Amino acid sequence: MISVDAHLAGILGAVRPLPPLELALLEAAGGVLAEPVEAPVALPPFDNSAMDGYAVVAADVAGASADSPVTLPVIGDIAAGDAGVTALRPGLTARIMTGAAMPAGADAVIPVEWTDGGTATVRITRPCPPGHYIRRSGEDVVAGQVVVAEGARLGAAQLGMLAAVGRSHVRVRPRPRVVVLSTGAELREPGSKLAPGQIWDSNSFMLTAAVQEAGAKGYRQATVGDEPEEVRATLLDQLGRADAIVTTGGVSMGARDVVKEVFAEARPGEAATVAFGKVAMRPGKPQGFGLLEGVPIFTLPGNPVSAYVSFQVFVRPALRAMQGLPPEPLPTVTAVLAEDVRSPAGLRHFLRARLAYERGHYTAAPAESQGSHQLQSLSSADSLIVLPEDAEDVPAGSQVEVMRLPS
């Protein structure tokens, strides 16, 4: 067996970042920015009103009060987007809308709530200092400032920032396209009727969703049986739309482990370097990885929990690397173990668990069922306790590392 760290290192040494593409903003959503973006102008680009109200000279309303309001003539309205903003002399005011440019000479905005709302004249009942409710030019961003750094994943806020500085297209490393395929003659599509010995396929749905959670694009391929030529043909057919392929099942030591059979012998003209072995972990010991026509292929075990844990430990970091991001593991916390656990010597053990935060620290409670086929305990877990290879008997109260699962 090889260690978890050695298997992951081999994967990360083989995958490469995807080349950047120039994409329209909404097409770039979820991608990783491949260039720093600077603001060509200040934001806001001009002084503007932060409220609906009245543009005034602050000195004109210095003595305003409810008992002694100041009355000013209203010379007009200034709406957001008005191009013909004029100057304002002392002793006058103009109604102004949120986002509208401040007229020259005005140095404050009185909210409409402090007035009688007049249109020809207005009574103002409170004073204000200069600068009141004015958004100054450049107070958000100055011209030339980097507003989104290279390497940032483009979510809603980042796309909004890019649009605000006038960018319609950006260079990004796109979300990897990942094809997910379950193998096994016993598998049937959910919703179909089962014959004796058959089960509904769950792995491909679970892993396609995990791909999406990891920031990539997941494409589920219909299940295939245990015929090597059918599996081979399906895999080759998917290369045109795949930046990576994930399979589950057929990688252990059985007589009909079809994925291993497919890659057991090299075919003329076929560039496939896929190796299989055992990794010192539980669940997920049987693993395979390699390149098929240059496309990374991850061959994961068929047991659902084994497949899911393998994805989080090996595939997720690789997908991050393909986007030019650090291949970091899932977020981890240190927690106090809620009960005694046993772990097999020499294996890194990933135990399904629930985290709770109380009295200033996390507590991790292992799930009662830990079989690699028991999906229910995974679906109700929010974390994985990670026990190192030298841990065997770990008593309650011990501090343990816990990986937080995507929610």
Can you walk through the features of this model?
There is one protein chain. The chain has about 400 residues and is an alpha/beta fold. Helix content is about 20%, strand content about 30%. It has 8 helices and 28 strands. The strands form 8 sheets. It has a 6-stranded mixed beta sheet with strand order 16-13-17-21-20-18, sandwiched between helices. A hairpin with a 2-residue loop joins strand 20 and strand 21. Helix 1 (about 5-15) packs across helix 7 and helix 4 packs parallel to helix 7. The chain is elongated, with a radius of gyration of 31 Å.
Low-confidence blocks of residues: none
The protein's oligomeric status is single chain
Computed Rg = 31 Å
Question: Which geometry do the CA atoms define?
Answer: elongated
Strand order of the largest sheet: 16-13-17-21-20-18
Total number of helices: 8
List the helices and strands and how they pair.
Blueprint: H1 4-14, E1 21-24, H2 25-28, E2 32-33, E3 37-38, E4 48-49, E5 53-56, E6 70-78, E7 93-96, E8 108-111, E9 121-124, E10 134-135, E11 146-148, H3 156-164, E12 169-173, E13 177-183, E14 187-188, E15 199-200, H4 203-213, E16 217-224, H5 228-238, E17 244-248, H6 258-262, E18 272-278, E19 281-282, E20 286-292, E21 295-300, H7 304-322, E22 332-337, E23 341-342, E24 348-358, E25 361-366, H8 375-379, E26 383-387, E27 393-394, E28 399-404
